[in-house]
From TrEMBL:
Residues 32-78 form the Metallo-beta-lactamase domain. Coiled coil: none annotated. It comes from Humibacillus xanthopallidus. This is Metallo-beta-lactamase superfamily protein. Gene3D superfamilies: Ribonuclease Z/Hydroxyacylglutathione hydrolase-like. InterPro entries: Competence_DNA_uptake (IPR052159), Metallo-B-lactamas (IPR001279), RibonucZ/Hydroxyglut_hydro (IPR036866).
Length: 372
């Protein structure tokens, strides 16, 4: 019997590139690709997609969570390639979806495409973001409109016949307003892909996780991060929060709104992809308390910004109702400390890494069917 949800975190360096499959007993799985990592992830992503079964190569939804080079870099060549014909719908908030005069100034019908929006206009070597049969389908599950929570702590659901139920957790309309005001600047910054050179990673001893977890929370002020599309995916009783780089308070409000609508005090989930690669600015105690999970996933090799932050993971390990499992798509000096037997023995958590025999495969979490 197949499981419920399979989440594959490809090794996308400092970025996100997730392949999510909602499995069914009969028929092909429903698939969602979330982000494409930075530009140098594209060859790996392309190879992975071309390894899909010859008789089943559909990608039902491709999600571009937000405009940032470590999320869109591998998506641009994908949407400009022959593989784009496999995609059923692209979920992405482009300029045309943003509130205010800027957003109303253009429309998809006037020729705007996903790729031209991502790049600020088609560049040499890139197609116009169209398939042979016409423009890429864009936010069709939302009537072609914006993807947001509709209101503070609102609940917007998409139910896939025979597949998952997907609930939008972020962004809010407020965050889209902010993106609209800074659109040109955000796109230009994403195109430049200006990143500091990797610096030596100074690792603190993980001796007192309670003390680490209680350190003051910094605030993420990135307009792009705040506009991230984040979703709750539920299928056959299993559930996963896939959060992009969304703000902790926005995620907490969205998840609390879902819990309230269901008459719950909190929304317990099976898996939670930590926002912003495990940054302490986004992984807050309030967020973790709103939607505690059994499994927490981190997508980052830590070579530039040294994610995941120890403070963030300390909050995860010490704040979970029961000892969680940590899933890393890279094994390195920063992440392997969380598998130290002395640490796991003290706090009870477990740590999981990619198969060393398949260094290009990332890490895979398979969630079982849950009944009752």
């Amino acid at each position: 019997m197949p499981g419920a949800i399979r989440i594959e975190l490809l090794p996308a360096r400092l970025g996100d590139c997730l392949l999510v499959e909602c499995l069914r007993e009969d028929g092909r799985p429903w698939r969602m690709l979330i982000d494409g990592g930075p530009p140098d992830t594209w060859p790996l992503l392309e190879a992975r997609l071309r390894r899909m079964p010859a008789d089943d190569q559909a990608i039902d939804v491709a999600v571009i969570t937000h405009i940032d080079s470590d999320h869109i870099g591998g998506m641009i060549p994908l949407l400009s390639s022959d593989l784009a014909s496999r995609i059923g719908d692209v979920w992405f908030n482009g300029r045309t979806h943003l509130p205010g005069d800027q957003g109303r100034a253009r429309s998809i019908d006037q020729g705007e495409t996903v790729v031209s929006t991502l790049t600020g206009g088609a560049r040499p070597g890139l197609a116009a973001g169209k398939m042979a049969g016409g423009p890429l389908p864009w936010n069709t599950a939302f009537g072609g409109g914006a993807i947001d929570t509709a209101a503070p702590a609102g609940v917007v659901e998409v139910s896939i016949p025979g597949g998952p139920t997907i609930t939008v957790v972020s962004p809010t309309l407020t965050q889209l307003h902010k993106l609209g005001a800074a659109w040109l600047k955000v796109v230009a910054q994403a195109q430049r892909e200006e990143r500091p050179l990797p610096q030596p990673d100074v690792l603190e001893p993980l001796t007192d996780l309670q003390a680490l977890a209680s350190r003051p929370t910094v605030k993420d002020t990135s307009v792009a991060n705040g506009s991230s599309i984040a979703v709750l995916v539920e299928h056959r009783g299993a559930s996963a929060v896939l959060s992009g780089d969304a703000f902790g308070p926005v995620l907490a409000a969205g998840l609390a709104g879902i819990a309230k609508a269901r008459g719950l005090k909190r929304l317990e989930v099976d898996a939670f992809k930590l926002p912003h690669h495990g940054s302490q600015a986004n992984v807050t105690g309030a967020l973790l308390a709103t939607a505690p999970a059994g499994n927490y996933l981190v997508s980052s090799n830590g070579d530039v910004f040294h994610h995941p932050d120890d403070i963030a993971l300390a909050r995860v390990v010490t704040g979970a109702p029961s000892p969680p499992a940590l899933w890393f798509n890279y094994r390195n000096a920063r992440t392997e400390r969380w598998a130290d037997p002395a640490l796991t023995g003290r706090y009870g958590h477990t740590a999981h890494f990619p198969d060393p025999a398949q260094p290009d495969a990332g890490v895979v979490l398979e969630l079982p069917v849950r009944t009752g």
